[in-house]
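Appendix B, record 7
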Amino acid sequence: MAKHRSHSVAFKRQVAQEFVGGETLHGLSKRHDISRQLIRIWVGKYEAGALDDDVQAADLLQEYEAKIAGLERLVGRQALEIVFLTGALKSAPRPRSETTSVIAGPAGSPSRKDVGRCGRCCDDDWQPACRDGKSRPWRR
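C-alpha cells (predicted):
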C-alpha cells in the first residue's frame, strides 16, 4: 500500500457510505488500496458528521481566523517597534556634521562673521570675546 496519500473529503465520504451500505472492510481495502484502519477512521468521522461540507467549511474558517489573528498580532508588534524606533531615532543625539534632511543636503557651516557675534553688543567683526567682557561669543 502507498504511504502518505491525501484523499479528498468526497472520496472519504464515498468509501464510508459504501461501508455503511454493507461493503466489507477487506473488499474496500483491496479495491481502493487503502488500509482497513483508515477506513474505520473515515467511517467514524462520517458517523460523527465530520465529513460533511458544512463541518469542513467551519473547520477551514476557524483555521483561517486563527491565522488572521496571528498575523494581526504580528502587525501590531511591528507597529509598536516602528513607533519605538522612530522615537529613539528622533531623540538620539546627532553629530553636528550629520545632515538632518536628505533634501536639504549637508548642513552649511556658519560664516566666520557669524561665529564671533554675541548678538547683544558686538558688531559684524569677528572677535574672540565680547566687548562687554562678560559673555563669550555666541556660536551655532
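Remarks on this record: The chain has five helices and no strands. Helices lie at 9-20, 25-32, 36-48, 53-91, 112-115.
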